[in-house]
Specification:
heterodimer; A: alpha/beta; four-stranded antiparallel beta sheet; globular; B: mainly alpha
């Protein structure tokens, strides 16, 4: 199990049924902001879902709901048939900022979750394996402020990955990186996903990134945040960013988002 | 010696650059990147670094060779003392000739140390040698050292009492302060009850309460502990609370998705994240504790260095009084030094600059 790979386990399913989320405005006269309205989404084992849309369409809110960081106003989110309750290491999340704990070294950051869950002794070698995988062996005793943006985000990824969560939530994890680091990280994410086939849900601003990586792309519209369209990407991996089909998908999504 | 120095300099510029960049030390980099020094500047560096030794020797000669004023008496103790200091600076200079990082430090400190030796010489000249500054108010250093030595048993007892009192009060105040600080920063309910009192009592220096506390409390020691702890408690509570409140909320979110429960959010996230603030409070608290200690000892507690100072003053034993003041100074500097070292060790993860 420690080695990852295709593990024979129950099929993972994530179901969002009529999910709505409203926020109370800090300014009471403005009343209530509807961030998400009537979201329905069925996600199966081994899917890589990307969510794209303009800012303010509630993409990040949707991820936070699935992570359990905030409660739904209406509707239910079910993982494997059971409604989710609060946060769980089984629904891991990587944020736009690496949010590494600055008082812990790279190694301690990666081992944070294992130590809290009391699994450190049995899974210690996992820490080494993952740090090696992202090529940060020389930096295992470094503190986060000594890392570059790309390195920090890689640590954030494996810090969540170490739990082998069934649902992997990515909130624009590559948004702050330069183009080259970004493309490398996309491939790293894909290889990670293909070795474990959990459910990945990624929020991104980058339509190309969404097509390059995901099995389905969900487009969203703002005010109130809602799903506009779900587009299945029927291309074999690894994908060619220059292929005609790829460009066709890009056109379709751009048009759907009202860009021409 | 000088030629050797220049040779090292040139070798460094030429050969060492070719070696792996990893092997460069901080001093190497500073040297490589700075403008090359002229021969005169290099010689000047060696001369200035040697100045403390020269000033030390001058002071010893002044002390030993110059006749004392009137009936002023002096012993050899002070001469040995200054001799020891001079010898230490000399050793550092010699080590500096071979180790570049030591030399940089020696060169940096040299003007200051020379000036201190000069000050001591001038003071000795004005008191022991000429009597321009008169006894009993201005005893020469040799007299202070001998006074302290003759009263050593009692002084040690006073030091012990002061240190025990200081740390008892300090640790009680700091311990409670960290707990209340965490509770106030974390829970609105606790904050509701504690914060108003903090705001009300905070600005009043804790020493204000000494007269009333000394009357109310069963033992003077307990009263003094209370006063010291109060001041420490206030500054530690306030800084811990601020630290906890300013913890980046995204750390909590990340920790939650990694499986942390409420208790772990406090111990594994809030507390370490607030540590820089907590240390600031601990250091601030120490300075308020030192003040409270001395005031308490001067006003009520009948032991300790503060009391010793007051008592010797009333007997016009100014040499002993100065001795106690110097000892207090040394104790406080040491305590602060330890705290700062602890801070640096515990907070080594912090970004420097």
């Amino acid at each position: 199990m420690a080695g990852g790979g295709l593990v024979d386990r129950e099929k993972i399913t994530l179901k969002l049924k009529n999910v709505s989320k409203s926020f109370l405005s800090s300014n009471e006269s403005k009343g209530i902001t509807v961030a998400l309205e009537d979201i329905n989404l069925d996600i199966k084992d081994g899917e890589f879902i990307s969510i794209v849309g303009p800012s303010g369409c509630g993409k990040s809110t949707l991820l936070r709901l699935i992570a359990g960081l905030i409660p739904t106003t209406q509707g239910t989110i079910e993982l494997n048939g059971k409604p989710i309750e609060g946060t769980s290491p089984n629904r891991g999340m990587v944020f736009q900022d690496p949010t590494l704990f600055p008082w812990l070294t790279v190694e301690e950051n990666v081992a944070f979750s294992l130590k809290i869950l009391g699994k450190y002794k049995e899974k210690k070698d996992q820490v080494d394996r993952l740090i090696n995988m992202v090529g940060l062996n020389d930096f295992r005793d470094s503190y986060p402020h000594q890392l570059s943006g790309g390195m920090a985000q890689r640590v954030a990824l494996i810090r969540t990955m170490i739990n082998e969560p069934e649902v992997f939530l990515l909130d624009e994890p590559l948004g702050a990186l330069d183009a080259f680091t970004r493309m490398n990280m996309q491939d790293e994410l894909l290889s990670m996903w293909s070795s474990n086939k959990h459910i990945m849900i990624m929020v991104t601003h980058d339509v190309d990134e969404a097509i390059y990586m995901s099995t389905r792309v969900v487009t969203m519209a703002p005010r109130p945040g809602r799903i506009k369209k779900i587009i299945e990407i029927d291309l074999p991996y690894p994908r060619d960013r220059m292929s005609d089909k790829f460009i066709e998908y890009r056109k379709e999504i751009m048009t759907n988002l009202n860009f021409k | 010696m000088l030629g050797g120095g220049i040779f090292i300099e040139q070798k460094c510029k030429g050969v060492d650059i070719l070696q792996a960049a990893k092997k460069l030390t901080k001093e190497d980099i500073i040297e490589l990147e700075s403008k090359p020094k002229s021969k005169l500047e290099i010689i000047l560096d060696y001369v200035i670094s040697f100045l403390p030794v020269i000033f030390g020797v001058i002071h010893i000669l002044e002390y030993v060779l110059m006749p004392n004023h009137g009936f002023n008496k002096s012993t050899n103790v002070y001469a040995y003392f200054i001799g020891l200091l001079t010898f230490i600076t000399f050793i550092y200079y010699i080590v500096g000739l071979f180790k570049k990082n030591v030399f940089a430090k020696v060169r940096y400190k040299a003007p200051l140390y020379s000036f201190i030796f000069l000050l001591l010489t001038v003071y000795d000249y004005l008191t022991l040698k000429t009597g321009i500054l008169m006894l009993p108010y201005f005893p020469w250093v040799d007299r202070i050292i001998n006074a302290a030595w003759s009263d050593r048993a009692y002084l040690l007892d006073c030091i012990k009492n002061s240190v025990i009192l200081l740390f008892t009060g300090y640790f009680i105040g700091a311990g409670i302060g960290i707990v209340t600080g965490i509770l106030c920063g974390y829970s609105k309910k606790v904050n509701y009850w504690i914060s108003p009192f903090l705001k009300l009592l905070g600005p009043i220096p804790s020493t204000t309460w000494i007269p009333i506390v000394m009357v109310l409390v069963a033992s003077l020691f307990k009263g003094a502990v209370f006063i010291i702890a109060l001041g420490v408690w206030f500054s530690v509570t306030l800084s811990t609370m601020t630290g906890i409140r300013n913890v980046d909320k995204s750390f909590f979110a990340a920790a939650k998705t990694l499986g942390a429960k409420d208790a772990e959010l406090v111990t594994k996230i809030a507390l370490p994240a607030a540590l820089p603030n907590i240390f600031q409070g601990l250091i601030q608290g120490m300075s308020s504790a030192c003040t409270a200690l001395l005031v308490a000892e001067m006003l009520g507690v009948e032991s300790g260095l503060g009391w010793y100072i007051n008592w010797q003053k009333s007997w016009a034993e100014f040499s002993k009084m100065y001795a106690a003041i110097i000892i207090i100074c040394i104790i406080f500097i040491t305590v602060n030094w330890i705290l700062t070292k602890m801070k640096k060790t515990v907070l080594k993860w912090q970004e420097v600059d």
